[in-house]
Each structure stands twice: as structure tokens, then as C-alpha cells.
């Protein structure tokens, strides 16, 4: 397994990557970074953990909305952006995360 260094929301991570999977990993990192940056830029969430959870939920939601036969990758290895994706109610997701995290802001 190859080690690849990536940056998400300004923080570096070293990730394991199977041989030949670098393009897919880089496309995934771009999608996660783009989603987390958009949430942080919106200014409603400041905690990195909450931003990560919201980004994961947004990306998972988008994947669930795709037809099962559709490929999530374009020929360039970028995640495909579908203008018909359903709008995710970020405020409702934040409220649900806040409730789940409780008053201490921790999952456990």
C-alpha cells in the first residue's frame, strides 16, 4: 500500500492508498476539501469536527441520490457535479449534530 500526503481544510494527512488508486483518492480529497471549505465559508459552523461530519453527510446524501448505474467519476477522475442534486438543509443537519453531540460537543 502506497502512502500519499494530502491536505484537507489546510491540514495535512498521510493516507494509505492501493496501487493505482491515486487518481480516485485525489478526486475524493478534492471533493471533501471543497465540501468542508464551503461549510466553513458559510460561517455557520466553526468546529472542524462538525464541519467534517456535515461534509460527510452532504457527500453521502449526494451519493445516495445518484442512480445506481451512474458512475461517480468523470473521465478526468473528478467527481461529477449534478445540478439536479437535491438541496441539503444544512441548518437542519447542524441542529441534529448539535443535539447528538450534546452540551459538551463530543460524540463520546
Textual characterization of the structure:
- Helix content is 47%, strand content 13%.
- By secondary structure, the chain is of the alpha+beta class.
- The chain has a domain at 27-101.
- It has a two-stranded antiparallel ribbon with strand order 1-2.
- The model is unreliable at 73-86 (pLDDT under 50).
Topology, element by element:
Blueprint: E1 2-8, E2 11-17, H1 22-42, H2 48-65, H3 90-101
Antiparallel strand pairs: 1-2
Helix pairs in contact: 1-2, 2-3
Please name the defining characteristics of this protein.
alpha+beta, 108 residues, 2 strands, 47% helix, globular, single chain, two-stranded antiparallel ribbon
Count the helices. How many?
A: 3
Helix percentage range: 40-55%
Shape: globular
| Multimerization state | single chain
Give a quick account of the main beta sheet: strands, pairing sense, barrel closure.
Answer: 2 strands, antiparallel
Low-pLDDT parts are 73-86
* Class computed from helices, strands and strand pairing: alpha+beta
User: How many runs of DSSP E, i.e. beta strands?
Assistant: 2
Order of helices and strands: EEHHH
Summarize model confidence as the mean pLDDT: 77
Termini, distance in Å?
A: 31 Å
Radius of gyration, CA atoms, in whole angstroms: 15 Å
Briefly say what this structure is:
This protein has 108 residues and is α+β, with helices and mostly antiparallel strands. The chain is 47% helix and 13% strand.
